[in-house]
Prior knowledge:
The chain is α/β, with parallel strands linked by helices. It has helices spanning 15-28, 51-61, 74-78, 84-94, 106-111, 118-124, 157-167, 177-184, 189-198, 201-220, 225-234, 243-252, 260-266, 272-282, 289-297, 307-318, 327-334, 338-355, 362-373, and strands at residues 2-8, 32-37, 68-71, 99-105, 126-132, 145-152.
Amino acid sequence: MKILYFGGSFDPVHRGHTALLKAAVKEIKPDIIHIIPAFHSPFKERSNTPFDLRMDMVRQAFKDIKVNIIFDNFEQRQNKKTFAWQNVEHIKKTYENPKIFMLVGTDALNDIPKWSNPEYLFKNVIVVAGKRVGLAAEEKLPFKYHTLKARLPRISSSQIRLEIMISGAASEELGPIKKIIDDNRLYFLNLHDWLKKNLKENRYLHSKAVSALAAQLALINEVYPERSALAALLHDCGKSMSPKELIAYCDKHNIRLPYYKEICENGPDLLHSFVSAHIAQHVFKITDEEILAAVREHTLGAVNMGVYSKILYVADTGSKDRKYKGAFTVRDLALKDLDTALVAATRMKLIFTVEAGKWLCPEGNIVWNNLVSKK
């Protein structure tokens, strides 16, 4: 009996997965397909999307494939990280002497030797790989595999999540799973709902513009674009409050920062970044400290900022919606060198504050002096 095993996070499932499965069905002609969504992928952070919803999306995406498909919740039942070899072992115990084909994309194919217990896989499955446009298998892999003839679209779940997060909308191209995403406000659609309700339209559009640039800068600097995009969407959520409301919020939640008294007296709007971080943590349950730090530090900056803080600080200053002089320069520099852009953005903020006759927070001077001392 031929069993085709197809695992993955499916977060979300997309037309690339469907094309891959259809190509395998056409060539392998399996008797049964086991679709096993990951409960917690060993290679990724735990998904924010509940397992049951990812399973629902998979059922919708593969409903037209005319083969006996078992939508297997084996990993959910384990309630922990589960490895591919354990899924194969589960399938072997389910059938008498099955011939198991393990379906993967080209990107996963190259990583199989690094997986847990790869020797077990080499002995017990026939690897079936799809060719994705723009990706190729390594020339020498330590196992035999079958390459499908079909050419598959170059698309990824992370790309889809990022597009939804930045735009605030799920594309019609997602087909039947769009309704599941929309109905459950997945991939931070709930955050967009909140921002549209609580921010003025131009502030909401600014947040989206910053998110787009932050994601681009993250890719250039080889860090996670979803983290940068999320920090950018959250960075101004405290802007919904007036100066008096910002002070009251900080007092109520015991939010304190250097020069707090002076800021309350001379520039209470500066509190919005700290309030935004608090909202991110307590309303949207963000626990990633790098994201929270980026939100806190996007206005005044900080000594020795991390890469996500630098990206947000620069993206906020140089986003495409900014019309003031110097924004394009900061953006252009950021696409070439993040640290150079950070110095330029900090300098521009200081000059703008002085020329506008506004109070200059001492923290800004400390950050500037730290930056120029490193030149």
